[in-house]
Each structure stands twice: as C-alpha cells, then as structure tokens.
Amino acid sequence: MPQTQLGTAEQLLEELRGWVEHETPTTDAVAVNGLMDRCEADLRAVGGCITRIPGRDGYGDTLICHTPGTGAPIVVAGHLDTVWDHGTLAGPMPFRIDGDRAYGPGIYDMKAGSFMAFHSVREILRQKTATKRPITLLLTPDEEVGSPTSREPIEQAARGARAVLIPEPAGAGGACVTARKGVGRFVIDVRGVSAHAGGNWADGRSAVVALARLILKIHGMTDLDAGITTNVAPIFGGTRPNVIPPEAGCEVDLRVPTIAEGERMEAMILGLAGESDGITVTVTGGMNRPPFAETPSIVELYNRAAAFAQQHGYALPTQHRGGGSDGNFTAALGIPTLDGLGCTGAGAHAPHEHIIWRDLAARCSTLCGLMETID
C-alpha cells in the first residue's frame, strides 16, 4: 500500500467529473489551458515546482511539476486533450453514471489516468510523503494528434530518468502495456488533368482513379503475421460527376512492430511518389512514433507494479498494444517505461467511452505506490 492517503473511488470520481465536464478538444488551446490552469494552481498550492511551456502552432501549454529530491527522477506523463469536440457533453455523451460505469468524453482516454497521476503527485506533496526519488509530472496538450509540441519536453524529461510511468487507459482485463507498435502517418496528394467527362474524356487524367490504385497498393502492404498494418482514411477527390477530377488525396496510418520494419515501410510508402502519364503523386510524412519494445528492465518494472496490484486486490496482466502513446518516445530512448496504468474501461474514441469507476482507488494506489517506491 502507498503511504499517501488517496481517498475512496467515490471521492476520486467526484473530482474527475469536473475534469470530464471541462471539454478539452486538442484543437482548442484555450480550453486545454483552462484545465492546465486548474492543475497548476492546485500543484503550486501544495509546493510543486512548476514549469509551464507556452503552447505553439495552435496547441495548448505543457505543464511540468517537480517534487523535491535528488537523483534520477520518476517521470509520469499524461495528456489532457481529447478527440471530442465542444458540445459533446450537451449532446450525445453527457457525463453519467450507470452502475459501475462512468461515461463521458475523454474519461477513459485519458482523463481518468491523467487525473490519477495529478492526484497522486498533489497528495504526495500535500502530505509530504517521502519518495525514494523525485517525481516529474508532465501534463500535455496534444497527444491525440501525435504530440507535435510535447514530444520534445517529454523526451527531455525522460533522458536520465530512472523510469517512466504512462497512465494511458488499461487494456482488456485491466492489462498494462509493456510494448507498443510504432506509428507512421503520411499524406498523399495526387494531381491529374481536368477535362469534360463527356466531350473530352480522353484529354483528362483522373486523380481519383490514380488514388484508387494507390489505395489498393497500400492496403496490400498489410501483413498481419508480421504485425504490420496500413489504413487509408480519410480520402478526398473530385468536384462534379461531369468533370474528370484533377486532384485527390488521402491520409495513411501505418503500424509496425520494429524500427527496422518502420524504416522499410516508410521507404515503400514514400516511394509511391512520382510522375507518369499526366499524373503527379506527392507523398509526405513518415514514422511518427518509434516502436516501444519490451525489455528486461520493463519486465522488472511490471513485476513491481503487479505486486502492488495484488496488494490492492486485483490482477495486472500485460499487453502488447497496436496503438501508440507518449511511452513510445521514452521507451525508444532506452528508459524503462510502463504504460497502460490508467483506469479500466472501454470505448476510447467511441460513443460508449467509459471507465469502471470503482477501480479508480485501487488503480491510483498502484500508480502512487510505484511513484513512492521505485529505487
């Protein structure tokens, strides 16, 4: 059990509700910063040493809180942004409790986990709990779009750290994450030649048809046995049925298990660019998150977490997950990283998003225990 008193699941849910009801779409820096302001005020009030990095490129700020101590820190990183637009609460996804489930936009991915991390650090500071190492807490604004502004401070904080804890949502059966696939993102732009679809069909070069052929090629790059998947979405192209479309395009998602496969697949997708018969294809992008590979030091960290979980009355299985997180960045630096330490639930990015709220106290205790005791 952690030394820090964290409260009951009911108490944690009551405060978490305020986070969920403060909508924070990634694209609204003001909204994200509003929740950052609340976190900063609470952490300052209990003696946290705060650094706040101003947002840029339309994203919110990054908040960093240090606790006292010497030596390599324990880094904990969670994001406050969600995929849900303003008005979601007032429309299809109000905050509500139905039995053991609490519903609301972003509650599972990942406001519950980020709140657990924030609450643990706040109470460690408030109660002046002695931890074996200092703690560095990062709350970030843009994970849902690939962490374009927060990746650098996350990696900077992780360099030289003893371990990194990521309270992303727990997986099936409450699993934490000891490995993740790497993620690549690409944009394909196709330019053709416009013409009248009836009178001058032969003069045109359809960008939509060229894109369709590329989509089939990219779909064919999926190799499930090798752990490689591709997905094309969204797509666009054309203006009117009677006009040969001069432009079309799409985005591509790539998932790979290893750095080597990432390099190979990146080269293949970028290699689709070129010109032929009036069609010009441009491909931009590349690997966005490196693969997060399981290592003996990560297994050691997991074993410590599993022991805490047992003390708190639940099992903690492991999972290798296809989705990426900020843990990909820190694991790729060689820092022991344990992910998926957030709350149980389901429905990330879906209308049925929810947590099993009665698990909040036990999961938070495991996270806090790790912060206190990793030596």
Describe the structure.
The protein is an alpha+beta fold. It folds into two domains: 9-180 and 292-373, 3-Layer(aba) Sandwich (Aminopeptidase); 182-289, 2-Layer Sandwich (Alpha-Beta Plaits). The protein contains nine helices and 19 strands. It has helices at residues 9-20, 29-45, 107-126, 151-158, 207-219, 259-270, 296-311, 327-332, 360-373, and strands at residues 49-53, 62-66, 74-79, 96-98, 101-103, 135-140, 163-165, 176-180, 182-191, 195-196, 229-237, 243-244, 247-256, 274-276, 279-289, 318-321, 337-338, 345-346, 354-356. The strands form five sheets. It has a six-stranded mixed sheet, with helices on both faces. A hairpin with a 7-residue loop joins strand 18 and strand 19 (354-356). Helix 3 (107-126) packs across helix 9 (360-373). It is elongated and about 80 Å long. The protein starts with 8 loop residues before the first helix and ends with a helix.
SSE blueprint:
Blueprint: H1 9-20, H2 29-45, E1 49-53, E2 62-66, E3 74-79, E4 96-98, E5 101-103, H3 107-126, E6 135-140, H4 151-158, E7 163-165, E8 176-180, E9 182-191, E10 195-196, H5 207-219, E11 229-237, E12 243-244, E13 247-256, H6 259-270, E14 274-276, E15 279-289, H7 296-311, E16 318-321, H8 327-332, E17 337-338, E18 345-346, E19 354-356, H9 360-373
Parallel strand pairs: 3-6, 3-7, 7-17, 8-16
Antiparallel strand pairs: 1-2, 2-6, 4-5, 5-19, 9-13, 9-15, 10-12, 11-13, 14-15, 18-19
GO molecular function: carboxypeptidase activity; metal ion binding
Keywords: Carboxypeptidase, Hydrolase, Metal-binding, Protease
Active site: 81, 143
